[in-house]
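@channel sequence for tomorrow's demo:
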Amino acid sequence: MVPSGAGATISELMDATGWHAHSVRGAISGNLKKKLKLEVTSEVIEGRGRVYRIVADEASE
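structure tokens (generated this afternoon):
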């Protein structure tokens, strides 16, 4: 189990949704970034690989 707010890898998102990798990447790029205008960051974490996170809006905190 991944801690809340820790982000997710493509593989973890595939397991959670049952989607293929290209569909997960498309959802991140097309829906989250372009349509919803959310800021999505990624970083490589040792032992997990590339982890994607939605950046919290400071106004909503």
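heads up for whoever presents: Strands lie at 40-45, 49-54.
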